[in-house]
Amino acid sequence: MERHVAPLTGPAGSGPATAAALQRAAASASPALAASLQEADGLKAWLGTGDDALSAAPPPPKPSRGSPSPSNGAKTAPREVPASVVAAAAAVGQALRNAPQTPFLAMAARASSPPRTSTGSTAPAGGESVWLAAPSGVSAQSRLIVDLPDAEFTYIERPWSHFVTRWAAIDVELEEAFGEEAQFSVIDLGSCCGFFSLQAAAGYPQAFVIGVEGSVGVGNGTTGVEGTQEQIIETKAIQTHLKWVQKLGMTNCLVAPDVWDYHKVCSLAAIGQPICDVMFLLSVVHHVDNVSAEQYEADGLGRVEGTVSLMAKLLQLSPRHFVELPDKPWLDHIYAAFGTARAFLDAAAKMSGRQWSFVGPLCVSEWYGRREVWLLEEVGIRRPEAAGLRALSRPGLEALFPRVLPSPASTSTFSGTFPSPPGTGGRAVGAAAPALSAAGYKTGGRPSLTPQEELGAALLAAPTALIAAHLQLRDAMVSAETLLREATTTASMR
Protein backbone atom coordinates (compact mmCIF):
# COMPACT_ATOMS: atom_id res chain seq x y z
CA MET A 1 0.00 0.00 0.00
CA GLU A 2 1.43 3.37 -1.01
CA ARG A 3 1.33 6.26 1.41
CA HIS A 4 1.45 9.76 0.00
CA VAL A 5 2.78 12.77 1.88
CA ALA A 6 0.84 16.03 1.53
CA PRO A 7 2.77 18.73 -0.33
CA LEU A 8 3.94 21.81 1.52
CA THR A 9 1.48 24.68 1.03
CA GLY A 10 1.19 28.26 2.20
CA PRO A 11 2.67 31.62 1.29
CA ALA A 12 6.37 31.51 0.60
CA GLY A 13 6.92 34.52 2.80
CA SER A 14 5.29 33.04 5.88
CA GLY A 15 7.53 31.01 8.18
CA PRO A 16 4.69 29.83 10.46
CA ALA A 17 2.65 28.75 7.44
CA THR A 18 5.58 26.70 6.14
CA ALA A 19 6.12 25.20 9.59
CA ALA A 20 2.44 24.30 9.86
CA ALA A 21 2.54 22.69 6.43
CA LEU A 22 5.59 20.67 7.47
CA GLN A 23 3.72 19.49 10.54
CA ARG A 24 0.66 18.50 8.49
CA ALA A 25 2.77 16.66 5.93
CA ALA A 26 4.62 14.66 8.56
CA ALA A 27 1.45 13.90 10.54
CA SER A 28 -0.27 12.58 7.43
CA ALA A 29 2.35 9.87 7.13
CA SER A 30 1.21 8.02 10.25
CA PRO A 31 -1.41 8.36 13.03
CA ALA A 32 1.30 7.44 15.54
CA LEU A 33 3.51 10.21 14.24
CA ALA A 34 0.62 12.68 14.41
CA ALA A 35 0.08 11.79 18.07
CA SER A 36 3.78 12.22 18.79
CA LEU A 37 3.78 15.61 17.10
CA GLN A 38 1.02 16.81 19.44
CA GLU A 39 3.41 16.21 22.33
CA ALA A 40 6.39 17.93 20.69
CA ASP A 41 7.81 20.60 22.98
CA GLY A 42 7.74 24.19 21.77
CA LEU A 43 6.14 23.59 18.39
CA LYS A 44 2.74 25.21 19.15
CA ALA A 45 4.37 28.41 20.39
CA TRP A 46 6.19 28.89 17.12
CA LEU A 47 3.11 28.24 15.01
CA GLY A 48 1.32 31.27 16.56
CA THR A 49 4.00 33.84 15.78
CA GLY A 50 4.56 35.86 12.67
CA ASP A 51 7.87 37.55 13.44
CA ASP A 52 10.19 35.45 11.29
CA ALA A 53 9.65 37.07 7.90
CA LEU A 54 13.24 36.14 6.96
CA SER A 55 11.74 32.79 5.94
CA ALA A 56 11.81 33.82 2.31
CA ALA A 57 13.97 36.71 1.26
CA PRO A 58 12.91 38.35 -2.00
CA PRO A 59 13.76 36.12 -4.93
CA PRO A 60 17.14 37.03 -6.38
CA PRO A 61 17.17 38.93 -9.69
CA LYS A 62 18.21 37.13 -12.83
CA PRO A 63 22.00 37.19 -13.02
CA SER A 64 23.73 39.36 -15.58
CA ARG A 65 27.34 39.17 -16.80
CA GLY A 66 28.37 41.96 -14.39
CA SER A 67 26.30 40.84 -11.44
CA PRO A 68 28.08 39.92 -8.22
CA SER A 69 28.29 36.14 -7.88
CA PRO A 70 30.39 33.57 -6.06
CA SER A 71 32.15 32.81 -9.34
CA ASN A 72 33.59 36.33 -9.57
CA GLY A 73 34.49 36.57 -5.90
CA ALA A 74 31.45 38.49 -4.60
CA LYS A 75 29.73 37.35 -1.42
CA THR A 76 26.01 36.69 -1.56
CA ALA A 77 23.61 37.68 1.20
CA PRO A 78 22.91 34.76 3.52
CA ARG A 79 19.46 33.18 3.48
CA GLU A 80 18.32 32.05 6.92
CA VAL A 81 15.92 29.26 7.77
CA PRO A 82 13.05 30.65 9.90
CA ALA A 83 13.06 29.65 13.53
CA SER A 84 9.52 28.28 13.21
CA VAL A 85 10.61 25.92 10.42
CA VAL A 86 13.65 24.84 12.43
CA ALA A 87 11.37 24.08 15.38
CA ALA A 88 8.93 22.18 13.18
CA ALA A 89 11.71 20.11 11.66
CA ALA A 90 13.12 19.36 15.10
CA ALA A 91 9.68 18.33 16.31
CA VAL A 92 9.23 16.02 13.34
CA GLY A 93 12.61 14.44 14.03
CA GLN A 94 11.75 13.97 17.70
CA ALA A 95 8.39 12.47 16.78
CA LEU A 96 10.03 10.08 14.33
CA ARG A 97 12.25 8.81 17.13
CA ASN A 98 9.38 8.50 19.61
CA ALA A 99 6.64 7.10 17.37
CA PRO A 100 6.25 3.35 16.88
CA GLN A 101 8.20 2.40 13.79
CA THR A 102 6.38 1.48 10.62
CA PRO A 103 8.04 0.28 7.41
CA PHE A 104 7.40 3.69 5.89
CA LEU A 105 8.92 5.57 8.81
CA ALA A 106 11.87 3.22 9.04
CA MET A 107 12.57 3.84 5.37
CA ALA A 108 12.25 7.58 5.86
CA ALA A 109 14.63 7.51 8.82
CA ARG A 110 17.25 5.62 6.82
CA ALA A 111 16.91 7.92 3.85
CA SER A 112 17.24 11.02 6.01
CA SER A 113 20.36 9.84 7.81
CA PRO A 114 23.48 11.55 6.48
CA PRO A 115 25.74 9.00 4.75
CA ARG A 116 29.21 8.44 6.14
CA THR A 117 31.87 9.45 3.68
CA SER A 118 35.23 7.79 3.20
CA THR A 119 37.78 7.51 0.43
CA GLY A 120 36.83 4.89 -2.11
CA SER A 121 33.50 4.11 -0.50
CA THR A 122 30.14 3.27 -1.96
CA ALA A 123 27.27 3.60 0.48
CA PRO A 124 23.91 2.06 -0.40
CA ALA A 125 21.03 1.93 2.05
CA GLY A 126 21.81 -1.71 2.86
CA GLY A 127 25.24 -1.00 4.34
CA GLU A 128 28.45 0.74 3.43
CA SER A 129 31.39 -0.87 1.65
CA VAL A 130 34.65 1.04 1.98
CA TRP A 131 37.73 0.46 -0.15
CA LEU A 132 40.40 1.30 2.41
CA ALA A 133 43.33 0.79 0.05
CA ALA A 134 41.94 2.88 -2.81
CA PRO A 135 44.65 4.78 -4.73
CA SER A 136 44.14 8.52 -4.72
CA GLY A 137 41.54 9.62 -7.27
CA VAL A 138 40.53 6.07 -8.24
CA SER A 139 36.91 5.02 -7.85
CA ALA A 140 35.78 1.46 -7.34
CA GLN A 141 33.52 1.73 -10.39
CA SER A 142 36.50 2.56 -12.60
CA ARG A 143 38.05 -0.86 -11.90
CA LEU A 144 35.16 -2.83 -13.39
CA ILE A 145 36.17 -4.65 -16.55
CA VAL A 146 32.89 -5.97 -17.88
CA ASP A 147 29.47 -4.43 -17.36
CA LEU A 148 27.24 -7.01 -15.67
CA PRO A 149 23.61 -6.49 -14.60
CA ASP A 150 23.43 -6.27 -10.83
CA ALA A 151 20.04 -8.01 -10.72
CA GLU A 152 21.63 -11.21 -12.02
CA PHE A 153 24.60 -11.29 -9.66
CA THR A 154 23.45 -10.00 -6.29
CA TYR A 155 21.89 -12.40 -3.79
CA ILE A 156 19.91 -12.20 -0.55
CA GLU A 157 19.94 -8.41 -0.78
CA ARG A 158 23.70 -7.89 -0.58
CA PRO A 159 24.23 -4.43 -2.11
CA TRP A 160 25.77 -4.25 -5.56
CA SER A 161 28.31 -1.75 -4.28
CA HIS A 162 29.83 -4.51 -2.12
CA PHE A 163 30.64 -6.50 -5.25
CA VAL A 164 32.12 -3.48 -7.01
CA THR A 165 34.21 -2.39 -4.03
CA ARG A 166 35.59 -5.86 -3.28
CA TRP A 167 36.51 -6.42 -6.91
CA ALA A 168 38.28 -3.05 -7.09
CA ALA A 169 40.38 -3.93 -4.04
CA ILE A 170 41.26 -7.34 -5.47
CA ASP A 171 41.95 -6.02 -8.96
CA VAL A 172 44.54 -3.49 -7.83
CA GLU A 173 46.45 -6.20 -5.94
CA LEU A 174 46.32 -8.60 -8.89
CA GLU A 175 47.58 -5.94 -11.25
CA GLU A 176 50.47 -5.13 -8.92
CA ALA A 177 51.41 -8.79 -8.53
CA PHE A 178 51.06 -9.96 -12.14
CA GLY A 179 50.50 -7.05 -14.50
CA GLU A 180 47.80 -7.37 -17.13
CA GLU A 181 49.55 -9.83 -19.46
CA ALA A 182 50.96 -12.47 -17.09
CA GLN A 183 49.73 -16.04 -17.05
CA PHE A 184 48.33 -17.16 -13.71
CA SER A 185 45.50 -19.28 -12.37
CA VAL A 186 42.63 -18.43 -10.05
CA ILE A 187 40.21 -20.59 -8.09
CA ASP A 188 37.12 -18.67 -7.01
CA LEU A 189 35.74 -20.92 -4.26
CA GLY A 190 32.02 -20.39 -3.76
CA SER A 191 31.80 -18.42 -6.99
CA CYS A 192 27.98 -18.25 -6.86
CA CYS A 193 26.84 -16.40 -10.01
CA GLY A 194 30.42 -15.78 -11.13
CA PHE A 195 30.84 -12.02 -10.71
CA PHE A 196 34.46 -12.18 -9.51
CA SER A 197 35.41 -15.01 -11.88
CA LEU A 198 34.09 -13.11 -14.89
CA GLN A 199 35.79 -9.85 -13.92
CA ALA A 200 39.12 -11.64 -13.39
CA ALA A 201 38.91 -13.56 -16.66
CA ALA A 202 38.00 -10.43 -18.62
CA GLY A 203 40.60 -8.20 -16.96
CA TYR A 204 43.47 -10.68 -17.26
CA PRO A 205 43.08 -12.43 -20.62
CA GLN A 206 46.13 -14.65 -20.08
CA ALA A 207 44.84 -15.87 -16.72
CA PHE A 208 42.81 -19.02 -16.23
CA VAL A 209 39.90 -18.90 -13.80
CA ILE A 210 37.79 -21.71 -12.35
CA GLY A 211 34.73 -20.83 -10.31
CA VAL A 212 33.93 -23.63 -7.87
CA GLU A 213 30.29 -23.70 -6.84
CA GLY A 214 28.84 -26.42 -4.63
CA SER A 215 25.53 -24.87 -3.55
CA VAL A 216 26.03 -25.43 0.17
CA GLY A 217 25.45 -21.87 1.43
CA VAL A 218 22.72 -19.27 1.17
CA GLY A 219 23.60 -17.37 -2.00
CA ASN A 220 22.83 -20.38 -4.20
CA GLY A 221 20.75 -22.55 -1.91
CA THR A 222 21.76 -25.88 -0.36
CA THR A 223 21.30 -28.25 -3.28
CA GLY A 224 24.86 -29.51 -2.89
CA VAL A 225 24.28 -30.83 0.63
CA GLU A 226 22.31 -33.84 -0.60
CA GLY A 227 21.72 -33.19 -4.30
CA THR A 228 23.47 -34.59 -7.34
CA GLN A 229 26.01 -32.90 -9.56
CA GLU A 230 23.36 -32.43 -12.23
CA GLN A 231 21.11 -30.69 -9.72
CA ILE A 232 23.95 -28.36 -8.73
CA ILE A 233 24.49 -27.51 -12.40
CA GLU A 234 20.82 -26.59 -12.72
CA THR A 235 20.99 -23.98 -9.94
CA LYS A 236 20.48 -20.33 -10.83
CA ALA A 237 24.04 -19.35 -9.90
CA ILE A 238 25.79 -21.83 -12.16
CA GLN A 239 23.37 -21.19 -15.00
CA THR A 240 24.00 -17.45 -14.72
CA HIS A 241 27.76 -17.96 -14.67
CA LEU A 242 27.67 -20.25 -17.71
CA LYS A 243 25.35 -17.92 -19.59
CA TRP A 244 27.79 -15.04 -19.27
CA VAL A 245 30.85 -17.17 -20.03
CA GLN A 246 29.21 -18.14 -23.30
CA LYS A 247 27.72 -14.70 -23.96
CA LEU A 248 31.17 -13.13 -23.65
CA GLY A 249 32.80 -15.98 -25.56
CA MET A 250 35.31 -16.60 -22.78
CA THR A 251 37.67 -19.54 -23.04
CA ASN A 252 39.65 -18.76 -19.91
CA CYS A 253 36.77 -19.02 -17.43
CA LEU A 254 35.26 -22.34 -16.37
CA VAL A 255 32.78 -23.49 -13.73
CA ALA A 256 33.27 -26.58 -11.57
CA PRO A 257 30.09 -27.90 -9.91
CA ASP A 258 31.87 -29.39 -6.91
CA VAL A 259 31.23 -29.56 -3.16
CA TRP A 260 34.30 -28.84 -1.05
CA ASP A 261 34.50 -30.14 2.50
CA TYR A 262 37.32 -30.84 4.94
CA HIS A 263 38.34 -34.16 3.42
CA LYS A 264 38.29 -32.70 -0.09
CA VAL A 265 40.58 -29.87 1.00
CA CYS A 266 42.88 -32.33 2.79
CA SER A 267 43.14 -34.38 -0.41
CA LEU A 268 44.07 -31.32 -2.43
CA ALA A 269 46.65 -30.23 0.13
CA ALA A 270 48.20 -33.72 0.03
CA ILE A 271 49.33 -33.06 -3.55
CA GLY A 272 52.20 -31.17 -1.99
CA GLN A 273 52.29 -28.11 -4.24
CA PRO A 274 50.06 -25.10 -4.93
CA ILE A 275 47.17 -25.99 -7.20
CA CYS A 276 46.63 -22.37 -8.30
CA ASP A 277 48.34 -18.99 -8.08
CA VAL A 278 45.43 -17.14 -6.45
CA MET A 279 42.37 -18.14 -4.45
CA PHE A 280 39.26 -16.08 -3.81
CA LEU A 281 37.73 -17.08 -0.46
CA LEU A 282 34.98 -14.48 -0.22
CA SER A 283 32.34 -15.24 2.42
CA VAL A 284 32.63 -18.98 1.78
CA VAL A 285 34.86 -20.56 4.46
CA HIS A 286 32.01 -20.77 6.97
CA HIS A 287 29.91 -22.73 4.47
CA VAL A 288 32.70 -25.27 3.92
CA ASP A 289 33.11 -25.43 7.69
CA ASN A 290 29.41 -26.14 8.21
CA VAL A 291 29.41 -29.20 5.93
CA SER A 292 32.63 -30.49 7.54
CA ALA A 293 31.53 -30.75 11.19
CA GLU A 294 30.97 -34.52 11.07
CA GLN A 295 34.30 -35.03 9.33
CA TYR A 296 36.11 -33.14 12.09
CA GLU A 297 34.51 -35.40 14.66
CA ALA A 298 35.36 -38.52 12.65
CA ASP A 299 39.00 -37.41 12.53
CA GLY A 300 39.08 -36.79 16.29
CA LEU A 301 39.13 -33.00 16.00
CA GLY A 302 37.16 -30.54 18.08
CA ARG A 303 35.13 -27.94 16.22
CA VAL A 304 37.63 -25.11 16.73
CA GLU A 305 40.62 -27.32 15.91
CA GLY A 306 38.85 -28.62 12.82
CA THR A 307 38.01 -25.15 11.50
CA VAL A 308 41.58 -23.93 12.04
CA SER A 309 42.90 -27.03 10.27
CA LEU A 310 40.50 -26.44 7.38
CA MET A 311 41.70 -22.87 6.97
CA ALA A 312 45.35 -23.92 7.24
CA LYS A 313 44.95 -26.51 4.49
CA LEU A 314 43.13 -24.02 2.29
CA LEU A 315 46.14 -21.74 2.66
CA GLN A 316 48.40 -24.55 1.47
CA LEU A 317 46.57 -24.66 -1.87
CA SER A 318 47.86 -21.31 -3.13
CA PRO A 319 50.49 -18.68 -2.30
CA ARG A 320 47.90 -15.86 -2.49
CA HIS A 321 44.46 -15.71 -0.90
CA PHE A 322 41.82 -13.00 -0.81
CA VAL A 323 39.83 -13.89 2.30
CA GLU A 324 36.55 -12.45 3.55
CA LEU A 325 35.05 -13.97 6.70
CA PRO A 326 31.56 -13.29 8.06
CA ASP A 327 30.81 -11.70 11.41
CA LYS A 328 28.95 -13.37 14.25
CA PRO A 329 26.67 -15.31 14.53
CA TRP A 330 28.53 -17.25 11.83
CA LEU A 331 31.70 -18.98 13.05
CA ASP A 332 30.61 -18.35 16.63
CA HIS A 333 33.01 -20.99 17.94
CA ILE A 334 35.91 -19.25 16.20
CA TYR A 335 35.06 -15.80 17.54
CA ALA A 336 34.64 -17.28 21.02
CA ALA A 337 38.11 -18.83 20.78
CA PHE A 338 40.03 -16.07 18.98
CA GLY A 339 38.00 -12.88 19.32
CA THR A 340 38.63 -11.56 15.80
CA ALA A 341 38.82 -12.86 12.25
CA ARG A 342 42.44 -11.68 12.01
CA ALA A 343 43.47 -13.67 15.09
CA PHE A 344 41.85 -16.78 13.60
CA LEU A 345 43.71 -16.27 10.32
CA ASP A 346 46.96 -15.84 12.27
CA ALA A 347 46.40 -19.21 13.95
CA ALA A 348 45.63 -20.89 10.63
CA ALA A 349 48.70 -19.31 9.02
CA LYS A 350 50.93 -20.75 11.74
CA MET A 351 49.35 -24.19 11.43
CA SER A 352 49.91 -24.16 7.65
CA GLY A 353 53.66 -24.40 8.20
CA ARG A 354 54.36 -21.47 5.89
CA GLN A 355 55.14 -17.81 6.47
CA TRP A 356 52.47 -15.33 5.42
CA SER A 357 52.26 -11.59 5.09
CA PHE A 358 48.91 -9.93 5.77
CA VAL A 359 47.82 -7.02 3.57
CA GLY A 360 44.75 -5.16 4.65
CA PRO A 361 42.06 -5.00 5.40
CA LEU A 362 41.70 -4.00 1.76
CA CYS A 363 38.04 -3.14 2.20
CA VAL A 364 35.36 -3.34 4.88
CA SER A 365 31.69 -4.01 4.22
CA GLU A 366 28.72 -3.74 6.56
CA TRP A 367 26.51 -6.70 5.81
CA TYR A 368 25.11 -8.72 8.70
CA GLY A 369 27.98 -7.32 10.71
CA ARG A 370 31.48 -6.32 9.65
CA ARG A 371 33.25 -8.19 6.86
CA GLU A 372 36.90 -7.47 6.06
CA VAL A 373 38.78 -8.55 2.94
CA TRP A 374 42.41 -9.50 3.59
CA LEU A 375 45.16 -10.53 1.21
CA LEU A 376 47.35 -13.31 2.59
CA GLU A 377 50.51 -13.69 0.54
CA GLU A 378 53.21 -16.26 1.15
CA VAL A 379 56.44 -14.55 2.18
CA GLY A 380 59.00 -14.49 -0.63
CA ILE A 381 56.59 -15.48 -3.39
CA ARG A 382 57.55 -12.44 -5.49
CA ARG A 383 61.27 -13.21 -5.36
CA PRO A 384 62.86 -14.65 -8.53
CA GLU A 385 63.95 -17.81 -6.71
CA ALA A 386 60.30 -18.55 -5.87
CA ALA A 387 59.54 -19.17 -9.54
CA GLY A 388 60.28 -22.87 -9.07
CA LEU A 389 57.30 -23.26 -6.74
CA ARG A 390 54.77 -23.13 -9.52
CA ALA A 391 51.12 -24.02 -9.39
CA LEU A 392 49.61 -26.79 -11.46
CA SER A 393 49.26 -26.20 -15.17
CA ARG A 394 45.83 -25.60 -16.64
CA PRO A 395 45.36 -29.26 -17.66
CA GLY A 396 46.48 -30.38 -14.21
CA LEU A 397 44.13 -27.98 -12.49
CA GLU A 398 41.18 -29.07 -14.61
CA ALA A 399 41.94 -32.71 -13.84
CA LEU A 400 41.33 -32.10 -10.14
CA PHE A 401 37.62 -31.63 -10.75
CA PRO A 402 35.14 -34.34 -11.69
CA ARG A 403 33.61 -31.97 -14.22
CA VAL A 404 34.22 -28.49 -15.60
CA LEU A 405 31.86 -26.42 -17.72
CA PRO A 406 31.51 -25.39 -20.45
CA SER A 407 33.34 -28.13 -22.32
CA PRO A 408 36.07 -27.00 -24.77
CA ALA A 409 33.86 -27.91 -27.73
CA SER A 410 31.08 -25.59 -26.57
CA THR A 411 33.23 -22.45 -26.40
CA SER A 412 34.14 -20.32 -29.37
CA THR A 413 36.87 -17.78 -29.92
CA PHE A 414 35.54 -14.33 -29.12
CA SER A 415 36.47 -11.64 -31.62
CA GLY A 416 34.42 -8.79 -30.17
CA THR A 417 34.83 -6.68 -27.06
CA PHE A 418 33.55 -6.94 -23.54
CA PRO A 419 30.80 -4.44 -22.66
CA SER A 420 32.60 -1.99 -20.41
CA PRO A 421 30.72 -0.11 -17.70
CA PRO A 422 30.45 3.68 -17.81
CA GLY A 423 33.19 5.64 -16.12
CA THR A 424 35.93 3.04 -16.49
CA GLY A 425 38.76 5.37 -17.31
CA GLY A 426 42.44 4.55 -17.22
CA ARG A 427 42.01 0.77 -17.43
CA ALA A 428 42.30 -1.31 -20.57
CA VAL A 429 38.90 -2.79 -21.28
CA GLY A 430 37.46 -4.44 -24.31
CA ALA A 431 40.41 -6.77 -24.90
CA ALA A 432 39.55 -9.83 -26.92
CA ALA A 433 39.30 -13.03 -24.93
CA PRO A 434 42.28 -15.32 -25.48
CA ALA A 435 41.96 -18.46 -27.57
CA LEU A 436 43.09 -20.87 -24.87
CA SER A 437 40.54 -23.63 -25.21
CA ALA A 438 42.86 -26.00 -27.06
CA ALA A 439 45.97 -25.35 -24.98
CA GLY A 440 47.41 -28.43 -23.38
CA TYR A 441 44.93 -30.89 -24.86
CA LYS A 442 45.63 -34.09 -26.71
CA THR A 443 43.33 -35.64 -29.28
CA GLY A 444 40.05 -36.48 -27.64
CA GLY A 445 39.86 -33.36 -25.51
CA ARG A 446 41.47 -34.75 -22.35
CA PRO A 447 44.30 -32.77 -20.77
CA SER A 448 47.89 -33.96 -20.91
CA LEU A 449 49.13 -34.34 -17.32
CA THR A 450 52.54 -34.27 -15.69
CA PRO A 451 53.39 -37.11 -13.29
CA GLN A 452 52.80 -34.80 -10.31
CA GLU A 453 49.37 -33.87 -11.64
CA GLU A 454 48.50 -37.50 -12.30
CA LEU A 455 49.41 -38.25 -8.68
CA GLY A 456 47.13 -35.43 -7.55
CA ALA A 457 44.23 -36.73 -9.61
CA ALA A 458 44.78 -40.22 -8.22
CA LEU A 459 44.79 -38.90 -4.65
CA LEU A 460 41.49 -37.16 -5.23
CA ALA A 461 39.94 -40.35 -6.54
CA ALA A 462 41.22 -42.45 -3.63
CA PRO A 463 39.26 -43.17 -0.43
CA THR A 464 40.08 -40.98 2.57
CA ALA A 465 41.42 -43.96 4.55
CA LEU A 466 43.88 -44.75 1.76
CA ILE A 467 45.06 -41.14 1.66
CA ALA A 468 45.61 -41.17 5.43
CA ALA A 469 47.58 -44.41 5.14
CA HIS A 470 49.65 -42.88 2.34
CA LEU A 471 50.51 -39.86 4.48
CA GLN A 472 51.42 -42.05 7.46
CA LEU A 473 53.65 -44.18 5.23
CA ARG A 474 55.34 -41.09 3.83
CA ASP A 475 56.01 -39.76 7.34
CA ALA A 476 57.39 -43.15 8.39
CA MET A 477 59.72 -43.20 5.38
CA VAL A 478 60.99 -39.71 6.19
CA SER A 479 61.66 -40.75 9.79
CA ALA A 480 63.43 -43.92 8.65
CA GLU A 481 65.64 -41.99 6.23
CA THR A 482 66.56 -39.54 8.99
CA LEU A 483 67.52 -42.38 11.36
CA LEU A 484 69.53 -44.05 8.61
CA ARG A 485 71.50 -40.86 7.92
CA GLU A 486 72.18 -40.41 11.63
CA ALA A 487 73.36 -44.00 11.95
CA THR A 488 75.63 -43.64 8.90
CA THR A 489 77.12 -40.42 10.26
CA THR A 490 77.75 -41.98 13.68
CA ALA A 491 79.43 -45.04 12.14
CA SER A 492 81.74 -42.92 9.98
CA MET A 493 82.91 -40.94 13.01
CA ARG A 494 84.11 -44.07 14.87
Task: Kindly describe this structure.
Residues 1-29, 48-80 are annotated as: Disordered. It is built from 20 helices and nine strands. It is α/β, with parallel strands linked by helices. It folds into three domains: 1-56 and 81-113, no CATH class; 121-410, Vaccinia Virus protein VP39 (Rossmann fold, 3-Layer(aba) Sandwich); 463-493. Strand 1 and strand 2 form a beta hairpin. The chain is globular. The model is unreliable at 1-14, 41-81, 101-121, 217-225, 409-417 and 428-447 (pLDDT under 50).
Broad structural category: alpha/beta
**Shape label:** globular
Query: What is the name of the CATH topology of the largest domain?
Result: Rossmann fold
Low-confidence stretches: 1-14, 41-81, 101-121, 217-225, 409-417, 428-447
